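fyi for ur records
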Amino acid sequence: MFRRYSCCRSLLLAAVMLLSFGYAHSQCQPHNPNPPSPPETASVTLNGKPVTIDYCAPSMRGRKIFGQVVPYDQVWRTGANSATTLKTQSTLRIGNLVVPPGTYTLYTVPAQHGWKLIVNKQTGQWGTVYSQDQDLGRVDMMDGVVPGSPVERFQIAFENTQGNKSQLHLKWELTDVYVPITAGD
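which gave:
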């Protein structure tokens, strides 16, 4: 009797953990019919190989974003919910950082002047779980064209793509920052 109770209790605990995990991650999953921060993908093909970024796109919803919701000079998950993921099949030069083929997490350090993009080797974590000792490196971002009207939903986009070169843009509110990307192989 005790063994059956213990087994049932273990199964119930496992089911609760799985449901909790699924609920926490449903905020940015395609099966959620109306997520507050829907899943988005930015992709580009450089030298015939795909580069993709998967992220959750939060909205302004009448809030002041940079400097308030997203503090300046602190590491930001660069989106919402689960960590923003970069996948590349070729070696990239992001700014002055060489990024080998693989999967990485992207973070940023927003600032009033001079954002930094962080490429981190840790993957699969929730967006607020950041380990600086896992950084592949940090690169300076440049200011893009200030949007004429506020960008309601956070966007990551590849723009000005030519051959093996592109620009990785982050846009939200009245901010557009970017970094050049070049594929090496």
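The two ends are 63 Å apart (CA to CA). thats all i got for now
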